[in-house]
Specification:
252 residues; 13 helices; mainly alpha
Length: 252
């Protein structure tokens, strides 16, 4: 329960990072920090800074922190190691920017940290260490080997490299894949990922309408039908791993 709810809140942070809940940037920022509190680890403000670059420079090596580092690609190759990657992928998403793309923290990052750590201390002070384990442990479970976490892999990994692509980008394979199943009901429609990247300022609640309005663009695209199966494919398929991503070179 903690894992599922924490993941839903993390995806709420994603929605708010696009400024889609309030007209005021301040209100969106505060709501993102509030959604971040139960995870026990400050992330909301930094996530917004890095996620903006994921949209403006998707797949650009050295800018898009969604692209695994070379050491991840070399290390997580077989079934056992890829299972570890999925279990601890939240650590890699969190630590990757620090090692590959560090940014100087600003006042909002410090405020985010103060709020989250104050909540952690209050939990420990009034409810004991088990409360901290419930929140933080739940977040790690929900963002690891959990059915909803299949969206981390499904969105931009190429899991069937031998199949002909449903479309090409400058002659290359597709970079983004959607999922239209029932898990979208509790995840702010994050599965509508092609639609999201095409229109990042449209809230998740309206993305099904985008797809319905443009069937000629979206109905023919290859998409996923199960996030759980995506995890299984990623872990067990030979030749698929952290390097199964479309990369672009930094433009000068």
């Amino acid at each position: 329960v903690s894992g599922t709810l924490n993941h839903v809140l993390v995806l709420a942070m994603h929605e708010v990072s696009h400024g889609l809940c309030f007209k005021s940037r301040l209100a969106n920022q505060l709501l993102a920090i509030l959604a971040n509190v139960p995870q026990g680890i400050p992330a909301a403000v930094s996530f917004r800074r890095y996620h903006t670059e994921h949209h403006t420079s998707q797949g650009v090596d050295g800018i898009d922190t969604d692209i695994p580092l070379d050491i991840e690609t070399k290390l997580f190759r077989n079934t056992f190691m890829k299972t570890l990657f999925v279990i601890f992928q939240v650590f890699f998403y969190g630590l990757r920017p620090l090692f590959g793309f560090p940014k100087t923290p600003g006042p909002w990052e410090y405020f985010n940290s103060a709020v989250v750590f104050a909540f952690d201390f209050a939990c420990y002070r009034y409810f004991g260490i088990l409360a901290n384990i419930y929140f933080i442990g739940g977040a790690l479970m929900g963002l690891g080997l959990h059915p909803i976490s299949g969206h981390f892999i499904s969105e931009h990994y190429e899991l069937n490299p031998d199949e002909p692509p449903s479309y090409t980008i400058d002659g290359g394979p597709p970079e983004t894949f959607s999922y239209y199943g029932p898990a979208n009901w509790i995840t702010w429609n994050v599965g509508y990922h092609n639609e999201h990247h095409d229109f990042p300022m449209i809230p998740g609640s309206r993305l099904p309408q985008v797809k319905a309005m443009c069937p000629e663009f979206y109905d023919t695209l290859k998409h996923h039908t199960s996030w759980s199966y995506v995890l299984w494919q990623f872990i067990t398929t030979d030749g698929v791993g952290c390097g199964s991503r479309v990369k672009r070179h930094r433009k000068t």
